[in-house]
């Protein structure tokens, strides 16, 4: 499976060989869409939550965007968030917890990647009820050289088709409230904000109903 976006950019399935590149994209977009390199002391750790498990646990819906300089982005989704979270809880997080020390509950003492270490030891797999109509969720992150070329729109359209074909009725994204560029991007694609009691300083949900017409382009 390869989608040619033009300009030397292509979409293809991600593989295990991409893990370090996927972690790098995660790091370089991990500060509400901007480069988080300045903040993290373990450059691969965010990717162990937000990138690698998607390729490992849901490989059919894990894609890399290739550019002239290598991997320039990724597109991940899971068909059923509840079942994916159950697999994270039973296998992925317990393995990570073996390798990473818990920084403890005292948030003011956390430094650099400690927030990720804390999230690894105290994951929150709750899904707000307001998202019940949207069983699937996704992530898209493109490096600067791949942005503003229509690739994001084409990726999301492709993903919506894949999910609708697989029977999904809706897709949600968890967007950082400071990431207004991403919010405007999703709004341009027809995603609407879903208000939940769980909305917090770090989480905001945008979602779209997937209808049978999403199954064809
Ligand atoms: C957000 C992101 C995926 C968008 O992808 P992109 O390829 O740059 O977006 P596109 O060029 O496909 O734009 C699609 C539409 O969104 C609109 N859009 C994109 N960014 C926008 C912005 N900052 N403000 C307003 N509209 C925007 C475009 O105008 C375009 O509308 P049109 O097709 O009607 O002209 C990409 O910029 C990115 O990865 N950013 C950094 C990481 C990130 O924030 N990821 C999302 C985390 S939730």
From TrEMBL:
It comes from the Bacteria. SUPFAM superfamilies: Acyl-CoA N-acyltransferases (Nat). Residues 79-211 form the N-acetyltransferase domain. InterPro entries: Acyl_CoA_acyltransferase (IPR016181), Glycosyl_Hydrolase_84 (IPR051822), GNAT_dom (IPR000182). One of its GO terms (molecular function) is beta-N-acetylglucosaminidase activity. GO terms for biological process: glycoprotein metabolic process. This is GNAT family N-acetyltransferase.
